[in-house]
Amino acid sequence: MEADPHTQGVVEVPPAAAHGAAPNVMDVSAPMMILTWVTFLLLALVLYKVAWKPILKVLDMREKSTRDALEQAEKARAEAAAIEVRNREMLQAAERESQKLVAEARVAAQETARLVQERAEQKSKALLEEARRDIEAATGQARAALRLEIR
Asked: Where are the alpha helices (DSSP H) in 17-52?
């Protein structure tokens, strides 16, 4: 055979004879297809009985625990919101009470200041009156002494 320059390095494989050739793995045959399907179905049935049910059971348990955790988280959130509202109300009540106490303290301080001022005025009036009497008494004594000296 003469070598063609375009096909140099290519090996030609003659087609296999139908009766003497080895079977190809890629050849499709009806018995092999049926056997493959039977094997697949048996394996699927075994996996369904052995693995699928336990996997589904575990998944259901996990879903239930997740659902329970979400419910608990929602309850905790609702409780936290209620506590926050209650704390705000208590804080507002305490603020109102403190404002009331401050107002009462102001009134009491003003009343005390008024009483102190009244007492101071009364005391100063009493001292002034006593000083006038002392001055009048001293003036009377001085006049009496002058009368005695003059006579």
From this structure: 30-47
Which residues, at least 6 apart from 22, have a Cβ–Cβ distance to it below 8 Å? 16
Please state the domain count of the chain. 1
Q: What is the pLDDT of residues 86-139, one digit of tens each?
A: 999 999 999 999 999 999 999 999 999 999 999 999 999 999 999 999 999 999
Amino acid identity for residue 65 in this structure: S
Tell me, yes or no, if the pTM score tops 0.90.
no
- Amino acid 15 reads P
Tens digits of residue pLDDT in 47-81: 888 888 888 899 999 999 999 999 999 999 999 99
Helix (H, G, I), strand (E, B) or coil at 29: coil
> Does residue 84 lie within any of the structural domains?
yes
Which residue type does 66 have? T
Tokens of 145: 């002494």
7 part of a folded domain:
no
Residue 107 lies in a domain: yes
Expressed as residue numbers, the domain containing 145 is 39-150
